[in-house]
Amino acid sequence: MTVSVGYASGASASSCGYCSPPGERSSSPSSHHSAGLDAMQLSCPVYQAMIDRGWRRSGTWCYKPDLKKSCCPQYTIKLDALTFEPSKSHRKLLRRWNNHIRHGKPGDVMDVDSSVSGGKQGKSKGLPKFSLTSAIHASESGFHDIERPAHTFETILEPSAFTDEKYALYEKYQQEIHHDTGNTPRGFKRFLVSSPLRGDPIPYSSPPSAHLPKTYGSYHQMYRVDGKLIAMAVLDILPKCVSSVYFMYDKDWEAYSLGKLSAMREACLAREMHEAGAKDMAFLYMGFYIYSCQKMRYKGEYAPSYLADPETYDWYPLAQCKNLLEKNRYACFAHRDHSVEGDFDREDPPPELPSEDDQADIQIVGEIVNGVLLTVPLKNYTAPYSQQELAECIDGLGLELAKQVVFAIY
Ligand SMILES: [Zn+2]
């Protein structure tokens, strides 16, 4: 067994970062969680299974919000990267960006598809069909064949690591965009650099082009214009998806909607990996979709997108979900009658530990001797611990997944 999970408290945060007034907002992204654990090490397939059950990570802290209790339920959303078609306004953003880099002007000139290699010719005669891959790379160094572009634009995908340059961008972003001045390199590392993910090689069918990652895991995607770092995405590359953890940009470039451009670039990355033979790779996960928060609804502008049902974790097309989301505070797509308009009038009983038989298959770290984890089945674990917190973690993971990880109670 190579996977281990450090299990910690499942305490719920009380303040909401989405609907509470500015100033009272918690900077913690983990509001409303009912299950949480600090992961020492996670394999990418295990973490993929976790996010498919509503988990997210912030550094090594993994948490799963309780949608039933939340004033602003957070639904897991995924975009089908293989059939994604940017809207008209998304295409316009791409053209503006490419024209600025190539010609030094923000004008909306339709010329970006013509001189790029790798573009697919469309069925309509004359005009080449829009190609996401071509448009994404049209102004990028190493892809275009313009002799003297107005600016040099490059993106570099590198394993997640701390640099002063990245921290400077983060600090400026937090101050100028979020008006948050209490940042430290240590907090940046904990939140956006450290990761529990351990990546295996990606099974491409043939050697992939140089800009595609070779192993699963946590990455930083650097956006540079004329050598200067102007934006950075924090990404997890998982077996079935590119998962967007965070995106930050220099306010000087605000007019170009880099956040929207990055979402398209990340969807394109998943598509290119799929086309290079990583067959399971097919989605972009953009984190949580929060219908009750107008500012967070932009994630639904990318189509076709799907929401995970909060009870069965089956996927439902976003368009089908909107009616239920509009009418209810808590929406269940699989069992529509489980949806609730206001607050719950009764408390669900807290989850209980699984049966003795199942407890025999759940591993707990007994002690660490010379760096080796010695585990005991939960059934035989005798030290005192909070049964309710562990029960919430096991319930959040589901039994199948809970049996694939090692819990460390501290
Ligand atoms: Zn709220």
Descriptive notes:
The chain is of the alpha+beta class. It has two domains: 1-73 and 349-410, no CATH class; 76-160 and 195-308, no CATH class. It contains ten helices and 16 strands. The strands form two sheets. Strands 1, 2, 3, 4, 7, 14, 15 and 16 form an eight-stranded mixed β-sheet that branches. The radius of gyration is 22 Å and the shape is globular. The chain binds zinc ion. Zinc ion binds at residues 16, 18-19, 71-72. It catalyses: an N-terminal L-alpha-aminoacyl-[protein] + L-arginyl-tRNA(Arg) = an N-terminal L-arginyl-L-aminoacyl-[protein] + tRNA(Arg) + H(+).
Short description:
With about 400 residues, the chain is α+β, with helices and mostly antiparallel strands.
Structural class: alpha+beta
- Quote the distance from N terminus to C terminus: 21 Å
User: Helical amount among residues, as a percent range?
Assistant: 10-25%
Mean pLDDT: 88
Bound molecules: zinc ion
Strand proportion, as a percent range, falls in: 15-25%
Number of domains: 2
| E-strand count | 16
Oligomeric state as shown: single chain
Runs with pLDDT <50, length 5+? 8-14, 22-32, 108-124
